[in-house]
Amino acid sequence: MFLTISTTGTPERPATDLGFLLHKHPDRAQTFSTAHGTAHVLYPEASAERCTAALLLEIDPVALVRRGKGKGRGGAPDAALAQYVNDRPYAASSLLAVALSTVFKSALRGVCAALPERAAQPLPLRIEIPAVPARGGAELVGKLFGPLGWTSVEARPVALDERFPQWGESRYVQLVLDGELRLADALRQLYVLLPVLDDAKHYWVAPDEVDKLLRAGEGWLAEHPEQKLINSRYLARRWSLTRQAMERLELVRLAEADDIGVEAIDNAVEEIPADLDADLTADADATDSAPSAAVTKEPSLADQRREAILTALHATGAGTVLDLGCGQGQLVKALLKDARFTRIVGVDVSVRALAIAARRIGLDRMGERQAARVTLIQGALTYTDKRLKGYDAAVLSEVVEHVDLPRLPALEYAVFGAARPRTVIVTTPNVEYNVRWETLPAGHARHGDHRFEWTRGEFRDWAGAVARRHGYDVMYVPIGPDDPEVGPPTQMAVFSSHQESGHQDSGHQESRREESRHQEGKAA
Q: I want to staple 73 with a disulfide (CB 3.0 to 4.6 A). Which of 117, 200, 278, 518 is the partner?
């Protein structure tokens, strides 16, 4: 198993700086022990103009079999090959990826005390690997490496036997990458993508592999067009780990879109004192208080919103409910108090919010029967999720306005197209009512994380289109004082599935009546 890394230089910036970056001296060969054999690092050429570092990995087939029994798929990836005679000693795979991370550990992290500025800068690189197993062929190689900044990605298929061209090509390619990249970035890409191309690993894939993947994929994996395939193959198609990786990458994507840290999204709740009682009742939104500063015993807008949601759920006869974007668990807690709801699932992208929700409902102190009614899970609502199928109702309470508009179609499909509960309840602020909030500056959204806030017309346009696309009827309910000029502070849409309701014709008529009233209102 063989790999070379080459670069070019000038007298001012000699190519032999590669030795500093790799932490391996060009003037001597070095040997390192690995779990399955021996790794050698040597320099076939080392001058100011051009320098090449080579990694030669000798695999011990006996050690591979002994260590690989019952661990992953690498010991014998093809049933037709015997345990001791296979391609593992020769084809670049997870064995080479692990050797890279072991031998070039500091380079992989981009650390170089001698030349820190060189480690942070792109270098002219040429990486060659003579035999890479590519399940997906040269086309997949291009899809994986093409978006990563390489000027040239060459994957030449290797013939099964050059003496017999009629036998065709093997599943191996000779890989050559050319371009200007940071050395650390290039090594991280190889660390992840070599096992992905092979679609096999020589060791058991444990949960900590998600952390390894995200560390190596920092800066490129979150936006990679083949992200789903990379996650699935790297994590040996373990669905639970793949989902965890996808959800954490979604946090990274959202953070990069807003130019903030991931912690700012995952920890999008106020700091909670360590001794906070789980029976919290404070509302999370500052704007859910009454618009005037006067003290009032009237229910807060948050209380009115939850009451309206519970009333709508009771009307549908729902017994199993999804709280999508459950935040700190206020609605989950209200649902638990009602025995008519036999199964409640709270979903949120923020791990910290879920931890607070668990404390709010006293999950760790619940009896077995009560605890069996509720589940809190991490999930990004812009991805389809098999865990969300089969429920009577789903609630998106003050959620859609936190999603980027270009991502709304993904959320729409995940909820209405894939999960398809019988009833979907959506609440969102009515931006027209904002003028009634005395403490809210003109033109400001009610919450700093709101990507948008809709007028009544915009909300009904969106809800009506969603209902038509996915076979739902929709009705609209005001929440809070219904101002004759600007409407209510919160608007709610209740979607009912045609298939479940059995009233498709009357539903269409009601939708048309709602649409007609909406158009008349806009005309007025």
A: 200
